Amino acid sequence: MTPAPPKQTEMKQVAQSSQSSEAAAKAVLLEECEEQFGLLQKLQNEIILADTEANDDQSNEAVNRLIAVTSELEQWQEMEPKLLTTSPEVLLAVGKEELQRLNNQLKMVLSCSQAKLDAQKNILKREQTWQAEKKEALNAVCEKITRLQRENEKSEHSVLQDMKRKINNLKDYHSSLMEMLSDMLAEHFPLPDPQGNGTKKKRAAAYDAEINLISLSEIIERLTNKTLETPHDPYVTTDDTFWPPYTEMLLRNGIAARHPEDCNKIRLEIFF
User: Fold this and answer.
1) Strand partners, 265
2) CA 189 vs CA 97, 155, 213, 214, 244: distances in Å
3) Do residues 24 and 89 touch, judged by C-beta distance below 8 A?
4) Distance of CA 157 to the CA centre of its chain
5) What's the CA gap between 204 and 243, in Å, rounded?
6) Where are the beta strands (DSSP E) in the chain?
7) Terminus-to-terminus CA distance in the chain, angstroms?
8) Taking the model in full, what pTM does it have?
9) Burial level of 260, CB count in 10 A (0-12/13-18/19+)?
C-alpha cells in the first residue's frame, strides 16, 4: 500500500487531537458541574437541619439564625458569579455545542417562516384574482348603467311619437293587406249575377234582385271582427245576405265552423 502524504497525515492528527481535546474538555466540565451540584446538596442539607434545630430551640435562637442567614444571603447577592472553568478548550467545546443547538433552532424557525410565507403568497394570489374578477364585473355594470342613462335621455314625447309612427305604419300595412285580400276575393269569388246566362242564372234565380248579397270578403271580415270583439261569443247569425255557396265553402274548407245547437250561426275557426 502507498503511504499517505505528509500533509493528510498532519490533518488527521490535528482532527484527532481536536476531538480528544473536546472530549477531555467536556469531561472536565461535567466533573466541575458534579462538584458544584454536591456543594448545593450540602448547603440544602444544612438549611434543612437548621430549620429542624430552629423548631426545637427557643425563639431567640431562631431569630439569631434568621439574622445570620439573611446576612449570608446579602453577601451572596453582592458577590459576582464566576465561571466554572476558564479553560479555552472547555469554553470552545461548550460554545460549539450551544451554537449548533441554536443553529438547529434557527433552521426550524426559518422553515416555519418559509411555509407561512408560501401560504400568504397563495392567499395573496387568490385575493388578486378575486379583485380582478370584481373589477371586471364592476366595469360591466358601469357600462350598462351608462348605456341605460343614454337611452333614458330621450324625452317621453319622442318615445311617444316613435310609438305612434310605428302604430300608423302597422295600420297602413294592415290596410294594404286587407285591400289586397279584398281585391283577390272580389276577382276570384264574385257575387252571383242574376242577369247572367246559363247555369249561373238558374242558381241565382231563387234570389230576388232586391236582396243585397254581401261579398265573401265582407263575410270573412264580419267573422274576424266578431271573434276579436266578443271572443266569448264569436258566432255570427247568417241571413239572406249570406250566399249559401260561400258559406258552405268556408265550412268545408275549415275556415268557419257551425254552431253545435243553431245551424244558422257560424264562427271563424281557431287557427292558433
Assistant:
1) 237
2) 121, 50, 13, 11, 13
3) yes
4) 43
5) 10
6) 236-237, 256-258, 265-268
7) 113
8) 0.37
9) exposed
The rounded distance, in Å, linking the Cα atoms of 259 and 236 is 9
CA distance 227 to 268: 7
Q: What is the pLDDT of residues 61-106, one digit of tens each?
A: 777 888 888 888 887 777 766 666 667 777 788 788 889 999 999 9
- Residue 183: band (very low, low, confident or very high) from pLDDT cuts 50, 70, 90: confident
Percent of the chain with pLDDT over 90: 26
pLDDT at 194: 62
Cβ neighbours of 84 (radius 10 Å): 16
- Could you tell me if 84 and 36 are in contact, meaning their C-beta atoms sit under 8 angstroms apart? yes
HEC per residue, 151-210: HHCCCHHHHHHHHHHHHHHHHHHHHHHHHHHHHHHHHHCCCCCCCCCCHHHHHHCCCCCC
Strands 236-237 and 265-268: antiparallel
Contact 235, 259 (CB under 8 A): yes
Taking phi over 0 as left and psi of -120 to 50 as alpha, with beta for the rest, 233 belongs to: beta
Beta-strand pair 256-258/236-237: unpaired
CA distance 152 to 130: 33
